[in-house]
Amino acid sequence: MCGIFGYTGSNVANNLIFDGLKRLEYRGYDSWGIAILKENKIHQYKNIGLVKKDKDLEKLPDAKIGIGHTRWATHGGVKKVNAHPHISTEKDFTIVQNGMVENFDSLKKQLLKQKAIFKSETDTEVIVKLVEKEVRSGKSLKQSLITSFKKLEGRNTIAILDSKQNKIYAIKNGSPLVVGLSKDGIYLASDSLSFSPYTKKIVVLDDYDMVEIEGKNISIFNIKTNRKKKPEIKTLKYQYEEIDKGKYDHFMLKEIVEQQKTINYATEYTLEELKPLLEAIRRSKKAYILGAGTAGFAAGQIGYFLRTIAGIDAQDVKSYEFRSYLPIITSKDLIIAVSQSGETADTIEPLEILKKKGCKIASFVNMFGTTISRMSDYEYYTNAGPEICVASTKVFTAQSAWGYLLAMSLAGKHTTAHRRLKLLTKSLNSLFTPSSFDYLKRMCGVLKKSEHMFILGKGENSFIALEGALKIKEISYKHVEGFFAGELKHGVIALIEKGTPVFGIIPDDHKDNENKDIISAIEQVKARGALTIGIGSEQYSKLKIFDYFIPTPQINSLSSIANVIPFQLVSYFLSLQLGNNIDKPRNLAKSVTVK
Ligand code: F6R
């Protein structure tokens, strides 16, 4: 959601900002804009739709300093006039913003009374007007920004291009902001991935940090503590020169296939590296695992592994539903936060509250230097590389596999876990053969005619049913529901009609009675005319109850991680046949930084 990119230095800012915004595209946006500064004059370009070059953009003069923004509409529709940057009346500064001004209404009413004139419907323009008012009262732009920023409620991060002093200012609160230090100049962005080709040296800003960038220099001042801060420079482990699709037509398929490697990258941790967290789990009264969406389902998988393999009292909680747990969570409990972006507002909010309660926080995040990892006492990374497709695939299996490694390590089986995970990734290639793809494509040709589909899972595959359904609905826009198989007879069966597709996940490593339950559930829907699809152990492919069957590798209690992959592939091939935008599905953002 919304992305900020800025540059000052010796190279041409126009191209760097344009390329930076392209790399921020994955976060989701509906309009965008660039402002550059040439000879103390601000030149702006805004557009709706995709970040792409046109004659008007090319008309901007080459400059050495500028800011850019990708907008995800909150206040005001998707219109050019609402796109950022928003320039001041005197055209002496221009602002981009990530987040939401929660007291927008009351601030705007006050400003309107004072005769402020608004051109857009955005909350960002309210910030512009507040700053203008302060400047008119005689304050410097810097002081005006500080005074105005303190009036904003909610999580807001802003960047300002100052035409008089040739500077960029930025203030962070909530939404992420990272500075990149390179030989050619200074980069400023919502994530380090967007300037990854130019530098590995970063400074992550904390809430209420104000950064002042002039030429190749930065200074940081915290507006809450009123103290100057020495920039804490970190060096990233990985640098990504190009973020491209390689031989694939879509990032989604590339990322699905990459799981043959990324599951191992996420679980390379040695016992020594895991030790601090393992000890914290052992010491804790209870482990709560928090996440939202796909990461919430991964939290479910991690909880399942911790309970069943290691006998740990572990409970997954949807991060946005944590409040009912507040009365029972104490400082003796451990919180494990799971997140791809590390910036999900729904997950950050409980962490802030629980940290204040004295709980220790562990996190498993894909992006480096993010808010969630910086809040954590135990910081671990998925190491899955950039996940560009909005729908999460490789990060989900990385998170689940890490949970398995944690649980096995707690149970004294760290080496066995590594061996099994390697075996799993080696055997995944059976899912990626041309004949397997052809079979799935044919099946999707039938599925695309249905508007409703259901997925049944049990035990280790309960959350796989939910994640499988989310994956398909996100991109195909079909109504797909995942259920714990036990729910079927308690109500869900009423939905089954002739031809309704029903997936049943059936591994071979469940206790017999669990598979009997799945088989009987499939028999019941089959008797009502459902089109049945089995995913799991090949031994069940012979059963007459399945119309289609997708065999998956079965490696002890790891088959759930393999079982989610056919759902990812069904989501991909189905959406391809439906002609949908696979990497950027409608209405969705990769990084959900607002509540
Ligand atoms: C779905 C998906 C989302 C995210 C959720 C949390 O494919 O990616 O459901 O899992 O928005 O995001 P992160 O993992 O960044 O905390």
Could you please describe the fold and organization of this structure?
By secondary structure, this protein is an alpha/beta fold. The protein folds into three domains: 3-235, Glutamine Phosphoribosylpyrophosphate, subunit 1, domain 1, CATH 3.60.20.10; 245-427, 3-Layer(aba) Sandwich (Rossmann fold); 433-595, Glucose-6-phosphate isomerase like protein, domain 1 (Rossmann fold, 3-Layer(aba) Sandwich). 35% of the residues lie in helices and 23% in strands. It has 17 helices and 25 strands. Helix 14 (434-447) crosses helix 17 (559-578). The protein is globular, with a radius of gyration of 25 Å. The N and C termini lie close together (11 Å). The model has no long low-confidence stretch (mean pLDDT 94). The structure holds fructose -6-phosphate. The site of fructose -6-phosphate has 13 residues, from helix 9.
